[in-house]
Amino acid sequence: MLNRVVLIGRLTKDPELRYTPSGVAVSNFTLAIDRNFKNSQGERETDFIPCVAYRQLGELCANHLAKGKLAAVDGRIQIRSYTAQDGQRRWVTEVIAENVRFLSPKEGQAGGSTTSSDYPYGHEVNLNDDIPF
């Protein structure tokens, strides 16, 4: 069986960092990803994908990502349910991040390239090149 997803998009707002009662860091953020086609009105539609990062990765996301920043998330899809205060059962689909690449340049850095020394979990990316997919 395989449950794998790779996303590249921009954050819709700053990540929210919280801690579980046992002290585990949890960072929640949403990626906005444009679809590759236009609708009947000639506009691109956007999907908003909720992502969750745990432990050290969650803290790194909260510290290094911000609204509008470009990020790549590698992880798995998880579906869970809970009972809301009104008694209704709610379902949530989210991506559990296992690896996050920070693709936007650091604040104050000129040019469009980052290297692994600029960000944890980063690799060299030239933001002026088109993404090949």
Automatic annotation (TrEMBL):
Q: What is this protein called?
A: Single-stranded DNA-binding protein
Molecular function GO terms recorded: single-stranded DNA binding
Q: Where is this region: Disordered?
A: 106-133
Q: Which Gene3D superfamilies match?
A: Nucleic acid-binding proteins
Q: Which UniProt keywords apply?
A: DNA-binding
Assembly behavior: Homotetramer.
Its Gene Ontology cellular component terms are:
nucleoid
This chain's source organism reads Desulfosporosinus acididurans
Q: Which domain of life is it from?
A: Bacteria
Name a single GO biological process.
DNA replication
PROSITE patterns in UniProt = SSB
Q: Which SUPFAM superfamilies does UniProt cross-reference here?
A: Nucleic acid-binding proteins (SSF50249)
Q: Name one Pfam family in it.
A: SSB
